[in-house]
Design a protein that fits this description.
Blueprint (H helix, E strand, L loop, with lengths): L1 E5 L11 E5 L2 E8 H9 L11 H4 L1 E7 L9 H12 L32 H15 L1
Antiparallel strand pairs: 1-4, 2-3, 3-4
Length: 133
C-alpha cells in the first residue's frame, strides 16, 4: 500500500527532504520524480533525461512494506510503483559525448616530485610577494 501526493509548498524556509525507513514504513519527502528514478534504477542524475518538470515537481511517498520483505527489495518495489502510478516507461540508451583527455606529451612528463618543505617555501615566497604589493 502506498500513497503519492504532491509535496506541500515551502513556507518556512526549511525543507524536510529525504527517505526514512522505519520498520515496515517508508516515508519519502520532497523529492522530484528524477530523484525517485535515480534512486530506484540506481543511476546518476545526469543520466536521466526527460521533460523539465521531471526535476522540478516534488512528491511525497508514504508506503507500507509487505511483511517479510527485505530492505534490499525496496528499490525494486519503487520501480514497480513508478511504473504503476506515473505510467513511467523508460529505455536505456548509450550516447557519445566529447571529452578531454589528459595525456603525457611525446617527451614524457616534465614534472618533478615536490619535497615536503618545497610547498611551504613557495607559499612563504607568495606571501612575501603579496605583502609587497
Amino acid at each position: 500500500m502506498a500513497s503519492i501526493r504532491p509535496s506541500a509548498p515551502i513556507t518556512t524556509g526549511q525543507v524536510k527532504a529525504g527517505v526514512h525507513i522505519d520498520g515496515s514504513r517508508i516515508i519519502c519527502n520532497y523529492l522530484s520524480l528524477k530523484d525517485y528514478i535515480g534512486m530506484a534504477y540506481r543511476v546518476k542524475m545526469h543520466q536521466i533525461s526527460g521533460p523539465d518538470w521531471l526535476g522540478s515537481a516534488r512528491f511525497d511517498i508514504a508506503a507500507t512494506l509487505p511483511a517479510g520483505v527485505a530492505r534490499e527489495r525496496v528499490l525494486d518495489m519503487m520501480q514497480v510503483l513508478l511504473a504503476e502510478r506515473f505510467r513511467l516507461k523508460l529505455h536505456r540508451d548509450t550516447k557519445e559525448f566529447p571529452v578531454y583527455g589528459l595525456v603525457s606529451g611525446k617527451g614524457g612528463l616534465k614534472m618533478k616530485e615536490s619535497t615536503a618543505d618545497s610547498g611551504a617555501a613557495s607559499g612563504e615566497a607568495a606571501d612575501k610577494e603579496a605583502a609587497g604589493r
